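Exercise 3.2. Students should predict the tertiary structure of the chain below and write it as structure tokens, then compare their answer with the key that follows.

Predict this chain's 3D structure.
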Amino acid sequence: QLQASGGGPAQAGGSLRLSCAASRRPSWRTIMGWFRQAPGKEREFVAAISLSDGSTSYADSVKGRFTISRDTAKNTAYLQMNNLKPEDTAVYYCAANGTLIRSSWSQSTQYDYWGQGTLVTVSS
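Answer key:
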């Protein structure tokens, strides 16, 4: 199970940090990802990280503003969101899968495990 937390209201230009905690120690090959879904829109990829080597991938819309990281000792992945914009408003979901090739990291259909979502609301 994945438990996402850390969402809430924020002002444009502000910051939030999301956490995604796994209830059990994931496989060392696990990829953990963050996706988001705004009202009336499809779920979209935000970022992903390999638990084995820490390599990362980001959507173009968040590059330079968001940072994904992991703490393997705590079975937790984080999404540090800086310089937030109103268009970042969405429900953010964390996801995980044991083995994914890098080209699949951005595809939500490739992830088997999902957290419950946490709402981020950015006001201008």
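Discussion points: The chain has a mean pLDDT of 94. The CA atoms of residues 35 and 46 lie 5 Å apart.
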